[in-house]
Amino acid sequence: MNSNLPNIEQLRYPIGPFVSPGQPTSAQRKESIDEIRNMAQVWRAAVLPLTLEQLNTPYRPGGWNVKQVVHHLADNNMNAYLRFKRGLTEEAPEIPSYREELWAELSDYHEEPIETSLALLDSLNRRFAGLLVSLEEEQFNRTFISLMLGTMTLDTAIQRYNWHNRHHLAQITSLIERSGW
User: Fold this and answer.
1) C-beta of residue 146 within 8 angstroms of C-beta of residue 88
2) How far apart are CA 116 and CA 140, in angstroms?
3) Nearest to 46 by CA among 75, 17, 70
4) Backbone angles phi, psi at 98, to 5 degrees
5) How many alpha carbons fall within 13 Å on the CB side of residue 120?
6) Mean pLDDT value of segment 129-156
7) What is the pTM of this model?
8) What are the tens digits of pLDDT across the range 37-52?
9) Burial of 11 (0-12, 13-18, 19+ CB in 10 A)
10) How many CB atoms lie within 10 A of CB 2?
């Protein structure tokens, strides 16, 4: 067995689990918003050069293929955006989770081209960034209650949103690197 190969947990969490960096400064919040605004371009650069065979390759044994990850990102980001808006407009709303592993088995994850989800990510993230720059500082302290993660401020939700996107991007880019694509 080659000890230079990453283990399953390294393949699953190439940037490690989410750790909240705490209360961001205004400058850090601006960086997070810029990251959201530019996210689709980064994803496009990573996945559009891939062939159909490469897109259908799992990023790890037993994991989703690249195409499923791209479609998951669009679905998850839509859900995150809606959770965020509920946190802005309701008092500590309870936010249900969704069965992402079952969503990944639906036909759109297998048949729809990734360009559809990349276009969705681009529009969604531009809209999300536009909303974020319009908020007053105290609005970022509003909360929602995730049934899986507990009470979360909107600041933490932004940090988790960006981590989630970097997390999945690292899964794909590490696959590309390991495969020599």
Assistant:
1) no
2) 31
3) 70
4) -135, 160
5) 17
6) 96
7) 0.93
8) 999 999 999 999 999 9
9) buried
10) 4
Which structure tokens are listed for 131? Answer: 């909303």
Average pLDDT over residues 90-102: 95
Is a pLDDT exceeding 60 seen at residue 3?
no
Q: Is the pLDDT of residue 122 over 50?
A: yes
Contact call for residues 56 and 66 (beta carbons, < 8 A):
yes
* Spatial distance between the Cα atoms of 86 and 80, rounded to a whole number of angstroms: 10
β partners of residue 95: 146
* Nearest residue to 34 via CA among 128, 123, 138, 120: 128
How many alpha carbons lie under 13 Å from residue 104 in its C-beta half-sphere?
Answer: 16
HEC-encoded secondary structure of the chain: CCCCCCCHHHHHCCCCCCCCCCCCCHHHHHHHHHHHHHHHHHHHHHHCCCCHHHHCCECCCCCCEHHHHHHHHHHHHHHHHHHHHHHHHCCCCEECCCCHHHHCCCHHHHHCCHHHHHHHHHHHHHHHHHHHHCCCHHHHHCEEEECCCEEEEHHHHHHHHHHHHHHHHHHHHHHHHHHCC
Q: 106 Cβ partners below 8 Å, 6+ apart? A: none
C-alpha to C-alpha distance for 136 and 147, rounded to whole angstroms: 27
What pLDDT was estimated at residue 1? Answer: 43
